[in-house]
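Reminder to self: tokens first, then the designed residues, so the page reads top to bottom the way the pipeline ran.
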């Protein structure tokens, strides 16, 4: 197995990229998936110094060519390649190697870091394992895979001496910036979360969203993953598992709390809020919060409260720290650069998860049915604590696609290991079993951190 000695930070990321540009040694990115997010990454890196996409794979290879055409002349000229050697050769000649096989990109010489932008949990698992085995850094945009097997992947990356990181720009990593800021100052976190920027319709299905998805240049399934709440559940569980926070109750609260009231809503019940405990992840559906993220912190010391009041930030003891934007895929190249240049992960799960994304049936499901993908017709994601997930034998959302229904499941009921059988051929199913067995051997229990 290849290992790397990770570099130590020196100067800013912008300075490091400028130096790489002057030296003619850009960070070389391999991209898996050239849909909406992957196209954004090709366009964004074409505008940056010191980093470029040198190889890209998509099941429909022509999608990479289309993405490069959108990016314009700042991106490498595309060249079709087949196999790792041909991919490496195209890269060495200054071309954008285009292939339909992710393995060609992950295994090719001339690639420093791989970004998975597929959104398919099983593909994400395969990409990550192939990348780590090849001694390359891994940027996981595929949050669905991370919430399922993130601790396992992070551990394998550490053993290989490479970086495993979620991508900057998504709500979890954007919230993580605030978490690190607040914790660095020593303030306890009461709640951390995001604004939900789509209508919340738990029974949404793709057939009703074809027109909107087409207008927004999205896949209808992906749009429904946002609308039915699955994506919000996935994102907040990723945040929980990277911070030690936990959903306060199954599905979280999701109130209509405006920015100005976040600290009065996401605070303990005995002080007028919603929470039964401190140290939670949650979201709000109020207009004006999305696309922002927030942290509610506790500041009890009278001197601190005096200063915050002087700064017109309120009387406390709870204060909202708010970032009004996240740039999704446009920020992801920064994570690729930080991994290569500084050996830095912008966000990764803790060894022991505190939360799980389970699944609730969108309709009655009968024995013998094969479950479809996230954002389709059979189920939706639902955030619960790991303690609750274990008690219910909840089937992780990332293992649902391709699973067989073994017992009748009523609409609104949990998918569990008792009523569903995951597809044992899938890599993600095998890796999740390995993760569960490792945690069981260690008798690991989650530690909730406020």
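Designed residues (450 positions):
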């Amino acid at each position: 197995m290849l290992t790397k000695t990770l570099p130590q930070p020196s100067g800013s990321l912008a300075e490091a990229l400028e130096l790489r540009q002057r030296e003619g040694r850009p960070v070389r990115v391999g991209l898996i998936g050239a849909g909406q997010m992957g196209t954004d990454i090709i366009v964004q890196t074409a505008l940056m110094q010191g980093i470029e996409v040198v190889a890209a794979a998509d099941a429909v290879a022509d999608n990479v060519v289309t993405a490069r055409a959108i990016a314009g002349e700042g991106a490498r000229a595309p060249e079709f390649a087949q196999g790792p050697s041909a991919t490496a050769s195209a890269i060495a000649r200054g071309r954008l190697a285009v292939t339909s096989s992710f393995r060609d990109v992950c295994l090719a010489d001339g690639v420093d870091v791989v970004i998975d932008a597929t959104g398919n949990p099983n593909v994400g698992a395969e990409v990550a394992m192939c990348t780590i085995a090849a001694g390359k850094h891994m940027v996981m945009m595929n949050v669905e895979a991370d919430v399922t097997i993130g601790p396992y992947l992070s551990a394998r990356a550490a053993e290989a001496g490479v970086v495993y990181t979620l991508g900057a720009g998504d709500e979890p990593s954007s919230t993580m910036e605030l978490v690190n800021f607040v914790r660095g100052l020593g303030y306890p976190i009461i709640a951390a979360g995001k604004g939900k920027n789509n209508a919340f319709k738990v029974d949404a299905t793709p057939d009703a969203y074809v027109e909107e998805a087409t207008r927004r240049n999205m896949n209808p399934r992906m749009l429904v993953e946002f609308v039915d709440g699955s994506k919000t559940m996935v994102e907040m569980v990723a945040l929980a598992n990277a911070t030690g926070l936990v959903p306060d109750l199954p599905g979280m609260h999701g109130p209509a709390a405006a920015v100005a009231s976040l600290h009065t809503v996401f605070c303990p019940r005995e002080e007028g809020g919603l929470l039964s405990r401190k140290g939670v992840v949650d979201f709000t559906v109020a207009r004006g919060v999305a696309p922002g993220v927030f942290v509610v912190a506790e500041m009890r010391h009278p001197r601190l409260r005096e200063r915050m009041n002087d700064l017109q930030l309120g009387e406390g003891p709870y204060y909202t720290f708010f970032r009004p934007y996240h740039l999704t895929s446009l920020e992801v190249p920064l994570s690729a650069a930080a991994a290569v240049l500084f050996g830095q992960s912008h966000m990764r799960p803790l060894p022991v998860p505190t939360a799980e994304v389970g699944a609730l049936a969108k309709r009655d499901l009968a024995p013998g049915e094969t479950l479809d993908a996230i954002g389709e017709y059979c189920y939706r994601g639902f955030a619960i604590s790991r303690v609750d997930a274990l008690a219910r034998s909840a089937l992780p959302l990332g293992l649902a696609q391709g699973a067989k229904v073994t017992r009748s499941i009523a609409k609104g009921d949990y998918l569990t290991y008792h009523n569903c059988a995951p597809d044992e051929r899938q890599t993600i199913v095998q890796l999740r079993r390995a993760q569960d067995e490792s945690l069981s051997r260690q008798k690991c229990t989650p530690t909730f951190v406020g």
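The domain at 13-169+329-342 is CATH 3.40.50.720 (Rossmann fold).
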